[in-house]
């Protein structure tokens, strides 16, 4: 076989694999599935766009506290490096096998009425948010994008987003380039904008040319938002105070449809909507609440166990890799692949409903 991959990359892969296997405290899915056999069978491979196994694993090698630790530099990586991605996908998404297929999209338009407010008295839930990710067809993911790609994608999305005329959703696109530090910091603190300098994305080579091509669109109320070129090409977000999941979903569906009319998205026949991180494949839906559950969260271990059983993920108040603050947690569906969009939302909805019951029952 001709050595397409440089010796330098091979050396980093060999050393990275050894580093992971020697890291006693590392609990990532990458460590578990990046075996010697996977290394040997894949280290010489390259995608057509030049993506290597190193591109897939480097964030998890650098950040030993990763939960997962892998990213796909382009769509082909999911197939070419299936030896690594498949077992990780299987384990993360509740047993999604290589023979399984993502079901057709079902956002649940007709079932929104079933999603009655989870917390009508406003005792537990601070806010509700549902987001999905999309990749623009024809473009690779962050590590393979050029500066010109970023600029073109941003210009295209600005036109599409500012062309939205719906009274509730219409808004303005704010590029990160030129945004004042005060405005940016406030938007991040208020949970509207992605943070800067994420070390997991940095190590995955996802922050090149920052802040070029990155920005946020939002309506006046900041209840409908679109992130451009953060982790994924697009993150489409609906959020509002309180626990009315139905309203949040309804708004997301309306906005998603308006954007999809104007922009073709990349979809994989088996993996559904394509994303940079394998945890987001399939529906790409993360439905979350910011919730106060002081009694049942007092015992952290027990709380984590209960959430795990209901396929719920716990994050801190400032998102992934942050800590809880004043007892407020971000609780969301963990699984995104191998179920429909509506089922992903339901995973969060049914689980949070149960958590509130448990909280109320605790004397
Ligand atoms: P994502 O899955 O969209 O990448 P992150 O964990 O990176 O989410 O968090 C992004 C931002 O969204 C953070 O500021 C986080 O606090 C905010 N966020 C997530 N869920 C909610 C929610 N239910 N209400 C308000 N803000 C939220
Ligand atoms: Mg994120």
Automatic annotation (TrEMBL):
Its EC number is 2.7.3.3. ATP binds at residues 127-131, 191, 235, 286-290, 315-320. Gene3D superfamilies: ATP:guanido phosphotransferase, N-terminal domain, Glutamine synthetase/guanido kinase, catalytic domain. InterPro entries: ATP-guanido_PTrfase, ATP-guanido_PTrfase_AS, ATP-guanido_PTrfase_cat, ATP-guanido_PTrfase_N, ATP-guanido_PTrfase_N_sf, Gln_synth/guanido_kin_cat_dom. The keyword Membrane does not apply. Keywords: ATP-binding, Kinase, Nucleotide-binding, Transferase. The keyword Transferase applies. PROSITE patterns: PHOSPHAGEN_KINASE, PHOSPHAGEN_KINASE_C, PHOSPHAGEN_KINASE_N. GO terms for molecular function: arginine kinase activity; ATP binding; creatine kinase activity. Residues 124-362 form the Phosphagen kinase C-terminal domain. Belongs to the ATP:guanido phosphotransferase family. This is arginine kinase. It comes from Mesorhabditis belari. The lineage of its organism: Eukaryota, Metazoa, Ecdysozoa, Nematoda, Chromadorea.
């Amino acid at each position: 076989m001709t050595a397409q991959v440089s010796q330098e990359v091979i050396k980093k892969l060999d050393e990275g694999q050894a580093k992971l296997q020697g890291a006693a405290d590392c609990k990532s899915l990458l460590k578990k599935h990046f075996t010697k056999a996977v290394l040997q069978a894949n280290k010489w491979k390259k995608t057509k766009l030049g993506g290597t196994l190193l591109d897939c694993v480097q964030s998890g090698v650098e950040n030993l506290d990763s939960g997962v630790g892998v990213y796909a530099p382009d769509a082909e990586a999911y197939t070419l490096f299936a030896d690594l991605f498949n077992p990780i996908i299987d384990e993360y998404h509740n047993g999604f096998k290589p023979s399984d297929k993502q079901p057709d999209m079902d956002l649940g338009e007709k079932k929104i009425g079933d999603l009655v407010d989870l917390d009508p008295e406003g005792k537990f839930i601070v806010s509700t948010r549902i987001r999905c990710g999309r990749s623009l067809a024809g473009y690779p993911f962050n590590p393979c994008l050029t500066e010109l790609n970023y600029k073109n994608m941003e210009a295209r999305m600005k036109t599409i987003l500012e062309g939205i005329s719906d009274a509730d959703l219409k808004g303005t696109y704010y590029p990160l380039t030129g945004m004042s530090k005060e405005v940016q910091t406030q938007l991040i603190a208020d949970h509207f904008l992605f943070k800067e300098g994420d070390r997991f994305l940095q190590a995955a080579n996802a922050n090149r040319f920052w802040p070029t091509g990155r920005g946020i669109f939002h309506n006046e109320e900041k209840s409908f938002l679109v992130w451009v070129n953060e982790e994924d090409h697009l993150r489409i977000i609906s959020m509002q105070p309180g626990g009315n999941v139905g309203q949040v979903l309804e708004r997301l569906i309306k906005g998603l449809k308006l954007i999809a009319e104007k922009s073709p998205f990349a979809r994989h026949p088996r993996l559904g909507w394509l994303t940079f991180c394998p945890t987001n494949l399939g529906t790409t839906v993360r439905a979350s609440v910011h919730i106060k559950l002081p009694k049942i969260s007092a015992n952290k271990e027990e709380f984590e166990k209960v959430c795990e059983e209901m396929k719920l993920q716990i994050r801190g108040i400032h998102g992934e890799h942050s800590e809880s603050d004043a007892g407020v947690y971000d609780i969301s569906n963990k699984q995104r692949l191998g179920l429909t969009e509506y089922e992903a939302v339901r995973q969060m909805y049914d689980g949070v409903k149960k958590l509130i019951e448990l909280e109320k029952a605790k004397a």
